[in-house]
Amino acid sequence: MKFGKCLSASAQELPEDWRQHVVHYSHLKKCINRIVAELEEIGLASLAAGYSDESIDSTQPLKLIYSFIGTVKRFKSFPRLMNSKALRKPNLIIPSGTSITQLIRAQPLALNITLPTDSEFFGNLSGSINGLTKFELDMKEACSGKIVKLASLISHTASPYSKDIIWMVNNRVWQKPQTVEKTREQYQWFVQEITRLSLAKKFRTRDSSKALEQFMMLNRDLLSIMQFHELNQTAIRKIIKKHDKRTHLSAKSWFVDLMAPSLLFKGNLSKALLSALHSELLIIIPQPDDYQCPICLSISWKPIRLKCGHVFCVQCMIGAQRRKIHDCPLCRAPDSVTEANTGNLDVPRMNFMKLYFPREIKAKQKEIDYEQAKEDVKVIGINSDMDGGCVIM
User: Fold this and answer.
1) Which residues contact 11 (CB under 8 A, 6 or more apart)?
2) What is the pTM of this model?
3) How far, in Å, CA of 23 to CA of 28, rounded?
4) φ, ψ for residue 250 (rounded to 5)?
5) Which domains does the chain possess?
6) Residues of the chain whose pLDDT is less than 50?
7) Which residues, other chains included, contact 368 with Cβ-Cβ below 8 Å and sequence gap of 6+?
């Protein structure tokens, strides 16, 4: 399927009021056909393709120089026809016996050419880009407001004292997407997980159900924004490529430099909004990853804060002291591990972790108990690492 039809089909998946802002690819494609016809009509098709006209003296081949004039909001193409000596300093001395006509023909010439259809093409394209930039700015403002409201609502439902602590688990099922396809897969997986676990039915407060509904709507909006942005970027890139291929006018480099300040080219709106969503919610909901032990990479339960300030779980510190490790494993602060004792236990941090991460702490405690049991059986002479079942002494 050709890109024009794919673009029309994909645009139908967007909200109805968004479709009018999609780049009019088919109309711009027709403009390119008219540009080609215009170049052929004025005899510049061969020059644009990089060839010299046979009727022109080979000692003074003409060159077609193509550029843009104007600003981001309003610009047009500016083709000029000049000979190869145009960049040299002209001869201002008129030899005797030389006519003015002969002199004009001999001097380097530059001729500005007007291509109405080319100007129309880039006028329509620049208008579409400026409209897209304004539309995306409006969407960014609207979605940012929704994110702030959602963060305020979740701040009450995600409290460890609230009856609904499901948000403490839900916020870890999203990942930052890279493409529209991956985003859609992650969103569908997230919806399936909510249905499979019946999370919506487990909410006990109305605010939690409302927050989940708003969160799902916001994710759908982000998915649509990402698809909208990618469609327009692809359409613009392809139409410029087609323009250069059909007309042989090198517009790509000039156009990209001219439109660089535009929001559509400067950054990805969906990624900016997704980053804002993550930052707003991560401020509200503590993450277990921020409380990991740098050695075992699990939650640093019973956190030991060394004199250098680095925090490790008690199990790793006990193991480090048994292996005669004296310095901090991270910054190599002298004797930080050796001097650590029960006074280095970070009680406020431990209470905070107990409040917010009960599941992680329970799993960590099981791991600690298992390791302790292995140490105990080694003391009585049993090798806990032996394969097989029961051993009769």
Assistant:
1) 19, 22, 231
2) 0.60
3) 9
4) -80, 85
5) 2-119 (no CATH), 136-288 (no CATH), 289-379 (3.30.40.10)
6) 51-60, 72, 75, 83-94, 99-101, 103-104, 163, 165, 168-174
7) 301, 315
